[in-house]
Automatic annotation (TrEMBL):
The keyword Nucleotide-binding applies. One of its GO terms (molecular function) is protein histidine kinase activity. The chain crosses the membrane at residues 391-411. It comes from Rhodonellum psychrophilum GCM71 = DSM 17998. The keyword Transmembrane helix applies. Keywords: ATP-binding, Coiled coil, Kinase, Membrane, Nucleotide-binding, Phosphoprotein, Signal, Transferase, Transmembrane, Transmembrane helix. It holds the Pfam family HisKA_2. This is histidine kinase. Residues 543-646 form the Histidine kinase/HSP90-like ATPase domain. It catalyses: ATP + protein L-histidine = ADP + protein N-phospho-L-histidine. Residues 414-441 form a coiled coil.
Length: 648
């Protein structure tokens, strides 16, 4: 308490004193405090409170002086938000990151250092990913890469490789994790051969994430990277890396059924974290959780509960929701194993509530859709049974009333029967109201599913665009653009589904118009080429619409890319309509026609480009059991004839 009071008095005196200093003196004093803060982040004199105090004091000095020195403030906030410094916890850093970026934006454009802006955005993006907010994290990451897209210096390219590896690995999707591993390996090789100041810190990051990645699939690789990390420890003065090494060694020993050795490493992890007042980081949580696993396995349930509870409380303190849910599930399992089912149920309910909050970020849409569809089927069956029962009840009551009328001809009995019918009708009306509400809820859920599918397809498109921006090969870039258009063609369908009234079918004319506009925009051809859709409204089911949409996407793309070479303008026409047939059939024949007034296609001419689009069209045509024909008639005419069991 005395130390905190002294810091407060010192902070107050320093900021007041700064008002009488020149800007140069304030800058020098602020830099002194910054260096002092960074000195306290290193072992053996590590002191997190002192690091925070001196960084905050340095920032206050600059903020209270006039004129405000935005570049120095931005540099200072780069250190404050750098996870390697670990000055503040994640919640505080997340609130400070936008302040640092706002200072950078106020620097005159001709004085801005893009590397400084990049570092501020990367720090912020990684914090967002750790806090379970991937979408804003991705936006910040793309914005950061854009700042250095033209910087070809080797040290900058190596830094970008390392940061890409960290970001992709921690983004949370399996495909991105594999991409991240490749970037991390490349950056590791580069830093091993370099003498850059950040060499050791960057290698530690690479060794950590690579050992994580292989811990289940290839233990030998994990041992290799852990040994490389151990070799680096004498050069590392950041206690976070030391504690992480001890924690990882403990976990690896647990997997090898060496609980006694594992326990000593885990206890050493906790002692070191408590010695340096680092109990709010996730390693502290998971070290307790691992000790709880050992205690549970050995039947020391009270010890296990104590360790899991400490892990949960530490996670709540820094608001890492997914970790908190994980530790609650641990408590649930140990109470269940003890046979204390009341406590187990309480923790299971708590876990379910916590898990539901983070469900949106888990990318498990297909499972949730299947569950929803199953529930809908069950509801429909239950509704059919109820209606059948209601019908039987009505028939029985009617016959009973009729027989009573014939036998007794008694007005009073008739009146009672009418009253019973009235009550039954009210109950039926009430049940119908409930069914209407449930149907509305299910419709809302289906719309939400389509909305989220559309949003996730947009994220996929953004990731393709991000990857494309890093590729120099024009043919590969063209392939990536085609993939974006295919993804977008499916995204339009899901957008139409959640915006429309019918959740199971698509109006094709409006869809074709939107699809054509998107493709023209992607090729910057809106002023040169126009797309016309001369057809009546036609509604198809989702599966058929997706196949037709992908085929049409490929045909329009081919026309835009190849049909108008040497021409200043052109027109692409699309139509989809049923074919008249005198014989009454259960199946309706539909004909898709896509024409252009371009230069035409030479017969038996091989496909241009990769040929993937042509293969895709052929595959989808077979799926539709259709017939595809090409002809030249003042341009190219492509016809697809297929049968459909029904149309709306």
């Amino acid at each position: 308490m005395k130390i905190s009071f002294f810091f407060f008095l010192f902070f107050l005196f320093t900021t007041t004193f700064a008002q009488n200093l020149s800007p140069e003196q304030v800058a020098d004093l602020s830099e002194t405090y910054r260096e002092k803060a960074l000195w306290f982040r290193e072992m053996p004199h590590f002191n997190r409170d002192s690091t925070v105090f001196y960084l905050d004091t340095a920032a206050a000095l600059l903020h209270n002086s006039r004129p405000i020195q935005y570049e120095r403030l931005a540099n200072l906030y780069r250190d404050i938000t750098d996870r390697a410094n670990r000055s503040h916890n994640f919640i505080v850093v997340d609130s400070l990151a936008p302040i640092g970026w706002s200072y950078y934006e106020k620097i005159p454009d001709d004085q801005k250092d893009n590397v400084l802006g990049y570092n501020l955005l990367i720090n912020w993006a990684l914090i967002k990913i750790i806090r379970g907010e991937p979408k804003p994290g991705l936006e910040l990451f793309v914005k950061a890469l854009d700042l250095l897209k033209d910087d070809k210096r080797p040290e900058i390219q190596l830094k970008i490789l390392k940061d890409k590896g960290r970001f992709y690995y921690q983004y949370g999707l399996a495909e991105e994790e594999e991409i991240g591993i490749q970037y991390l390996k490349e950056s590791m090789i580069g830093y091993q051969k370099s003498d850059y100041p950040e060499k050791y810190e960057s290698l530690v990051i690479a060794y950590k994430l690579l050992s994580y990645h292989f811990e289940n699939s290839n233990p030998d690789s994990t041992d290799y990277y852990m040994n490389r990390l151990k070799e680096l420890l004498p050069q590392i003065t950041n206690p976070f890396h030391h504690t992480w090494y001890y924690y990882s060694m403990g976990n690896n020993l647990i997997k090898r059924n060496k609980s006694d050795e594992a326990q000593s490493y885990l206890l050493k992890t906790i002692r070191l974290l408590e010695e340096y007042n680092l109990t709010t980081i996730d390693v502290y949580q998971f070290a307790h959780s691992s000790l709880g696993d050992i205690a549970k396995e050995e039947g020391r349930y009270d010890d296990a509960i104590d360790y899991y509870q400490k892990a949960k409380n530490s996670s709540i303190e820094i608001n890492t929701k997914s970790n908190t849910a994980y530790f609650i599930s641990k408590l649930y399992s140990v109470y269940e194993q003890m046979g204390d089912f009341k406590k187990a149920l309480e923790h299971y309910i708590e876990y379910s509530e916590a898990d539901n909050i983070i469900e949106v970020e888990r990318n498990e849409r297909s499972l949730r859709e299947s569950e929803l569809q199953l529930n809908l089927v069950q509801q429909e069956k239950a509704l059919a049974v109820k209606k059948q029962q209601q019908y039987i009840y009505i028939v029985v009551l009617f016959l009973g009333t009729f027989m009573l009328g014939l036998l007794y001809r008694n007005y009073r009995l008739k009146q009672k029967s009418n009253q019973k019918l009235e009550v039954l009708n009210e109950e039926l009306a009430h049940k119908n109201d409930l069914l209407d509400k449930r149907n509305a809820e299910y419709e809302l859920l289906l719309k939400e599913i389509h909305h989220r599918v559309k949003n996730n397809l947009e994220i996929v498109s953004s990731l393709l665009e991000l990857q494309s921006s890093q590729i120099q090969d024009p043919s590969v870039q063209a392939a990536m653009l085609s993939s974006q258009n295919r993804v977008h063609s499916m995204g339009i369908i899901h957008q139409k589904l959640y915006q429309g009234e019918n959740l199971a079918s698509i109006e094709m004319r409006d869809y074709f118009i939107n699809l054509g506009e998107n493709i023209l925009d992607s090729f910057n051809a809106s002023g040169k080429i126009k797309v016309e859709c001369n057809m009546s409204k036609l509604i198809l089911d989702v599966d058929t619409a997706i196949s037709i949409g992908l085929i049409t996407n490929e045909l329009i793309t081919n026309s835009v890319k190849y049909a108008f070479e040497g021409k200043d303008s052109g027109t692409i026409k699309i139509s989809l309509s049923p074919i008249a047939n005198e014989e009454e059939k259960k199946e309706v024949e539909l004909k898709l026609i896509v024409t252009d007034d371009g230069i035409g296609k030479v017969a038996d001419q091989p496909s241009k480009g990769t040929g993937f689009g042509t293969q895709l069209i052929a595959l989808l045509t077979r799926q539709l059991d259709g017939e595809l024909t090409y002809e030249n008639n003042n341009g190219t005419v492509v016809s697809l004839l297929f049968k459909k069991a029904n149309i709306a």
